[in-house]
Predict the structure.
Amino acid sequence: MINYIKGTVTEINPASVTIETGGIGYFISISLNTYSKLEGKSEAKVLVHEVIREDAHQLFGFADSIERDLFRQLISVSGIGANTARMMLSSLKPSEIERAIMEADVNTLKSIKGIGLKTAQRVIVDLKDKVGREAATGEIFAIGGNTGRDEALSALVMLGFTRSAVIKVLDKIMKENKNLTVEDLIKRALKSL
């Protein structure tokens, strides 16, 4: 399985990029989101998702792991193939798709070409817990100067606990004792979750 391809950008358009490395040019399908990040660059590192079928070998490329992870989650939903997932990522930013899934915003997902009501509902049902958990950790790490509470929240969400449950437990613990270390907060929270 190819993880990424790094090399010279020999050709780029809104739907694909060709990266040459080791004398081989790799044709990689990309989203508009990735295109906007790669446009104008002569060298690039593109994260790859490989789709191998009986009749085709395709490479789908991404400028960052957030977009590739969301792509992989989208194609896990019944009825969404790689090209539909790429269309979704071309129509909306990854953060907008995640927000629509977490808020069960069917209309935002339906606004994407090729996504009907049933598919939008299926995406929300299948990915709400997965995307919510990963988006929550991304939000926490994006905040500069994490407090002990934020670090504990982030760690517990990554362990698989839901964000809302962790917040309730941490708030209760913090009311009792505000001077706990991150480790103590996590240990106490684990006993309550």
Q: What stands out?
A: The two ends are 38 Å apart (CA to CA). The CA atoms of residues 12 and 109 lie 27 Å apart. Residues 117-142 form the longest helix (26 residues).
